[in-house]
Amino acid sequence: MKLFGTATVALFALLAIGNAVAADEHKEDEEGASRNKRQQNEVPVGDRKPYSEKQAEAQLQRTLDKLTAGEGPHYKIVKVYSATRQVISGTLTRIDADLIDGNEEQHRCIVEIWAQPWLDRGHEITFKCRNQPIVLARHSRSVEWAEKKTGHKKHNHHSLDKVEHLFHKFQIKFERRYVNSVERQMRLRIFRQNLRIIEQLNANEMGSAKYGITEFADMTSTEYKERTGLWQRTEGQPTGGQKAVVPSYPGGELPKEFDWRQKGAVSSVKNQGSCGSCWAFSTIGNIEGLNAVKTGQLKEFSEQELLDCDTKDSACNGGLPDNAYKAIQEIGGLEYESEYPYKARKEQCHFNKTLAHVQVTGFVDLPKNNETAMQEWLIANGPISIGINANAMQFYRGGVSHPWKILCEKSNLDHGVLIVGYGVSDYPNFHKTLPYWIVKNSWGPRWGEQGYYRVYRGDNTCGVSEMASSAILA
Ligand SMILES: *[C@@H]1O[C@H](CO)[C@@H](O)[C@H](O)[C@H]1NC(C)=O
Ligand SMILES: *[C@@H]1O[C@H](CO)[C@@H](O)[C@H](O)[C@H]1NC(C)=O
């Protein structure tokens, strides 16, 4: 499938970046190690030695990137004046530089980076900027480093099996049993690759999201895509939907936050399982919401009915909300979830017309690339079905996700989900304000933020506004 191709390319690009960075880091660690040895042999420990500005700047840049990926602080380099290195229970690099802080203000700073390669604590960084309070920060050790150490079992007994240890914990937490040691080895290899991807997602994150080990951490990207299942719309072809009428907000200015969950229009998080039926969950979520707004009663409707009876879509092999709205109209309505429960596989259609509790008469397409219109429509009507690029979701652990555009192209929608609200996160310490959408996913409540994803709002991140739609209820 076309969408697989592009997603894979994106992941390869990601791996390539990962490897480049990893190689760079190895180099630095090795250089650092041999320099330490040299210094320990040749000069008394504690002596400060000049350090090239170019190398210092590169090291500082890597450090700042890692901090930005974490909780900050955020600085940009303007100029490095000089740097020294010193061995005191690790390597202490002192860099004299002009930096720009998160307020876009420039300061002359001494940055001290204290690396203790044999400890598991990562690097300690101190920013001493003129007329500013001292800022302390820390970033954790890289996965590559741990892996490298795994190759030197004799020398370092502790971190040697960091990857193995993480994998073991992962197996327990997610109850993974592999048929034999060959499969386990293969899964461990995939897991290790995924740890690299996780590190790169964290390093390049522009929002506040954290990426880490999830239940998908032993899956290849192809296997992961089987948990999504959104087809792409045929380009240039009309969807069959009506243009959504977007009412302007009566109060003038839109509220800062809005959440349909607090108004009883969102059912609990469901789990599509190992079945590419996201499209059904996205569609049903929208209808549950509209129905609750209309009737004042939150009822759950049947995804399985769509898997079995919607011949326009392909059950666990994917589908499109556009098709599902039309199919519901033709089938003659939806049964409740309890009457037609979810099986995560296609079965014989056994729809019973006397149990149809909601009718669909058509659907609307929301304008693309206008997230203000989406806010207005959401408030006036209910939760919105959207397509999204799920690249950043495989390892999402929480926070406002704002990945690099190239890692999450808007053209590559592969997952159907539901927008149920929006809000704004303030990070005053890091001078960051992050507007976000609240997205209901269908991977169970253990994934993400109790089953939800917060994605950056305002620049069509991961294509959130590309395929927004909603049913029209009778
Ligand atoms: C359809 O549902 C009604 C109401 O529960 C029931 O009486 C009827 O037997 C069902 N029909 C079939 C074919 O199962
Ligand atoms: C977005 O939609 C709103 C509401 O329909 C409209 O007022 C506004 O002009 C649109 N903005 C753009 C850039 O199209």
From TrEMBL:
Transmembrane segments: none annotated. Its EC number is 3.4.-.-. Residues 45-54 have a biased composition (Basic and acidic residues). Residues 1-23 form the signal peptide. Residues 254-472 form the Peptidase C1A papain C-terminal domain. Pfam families: Inhibitor_I29, Peptidase_C1. GO terms for molecular function: cysteine-type endopeptidase inhibitor activity; cysteine-type peptidase activity. Residues 167-224 form the Cathepsin propeptide inhibitor domain. Residues 25-54 are annotated as: Disordered. The keyword Hydrolase applies. It is an enzyme of class 3 (hydrolase). PANTHER family: CYSTEINE PROTEASE FAMILY C1-RELATED. Belongs to the peptidase C1 family. This is Uncharacterized protein, isoform B. The gene is Dwil\GK14287.
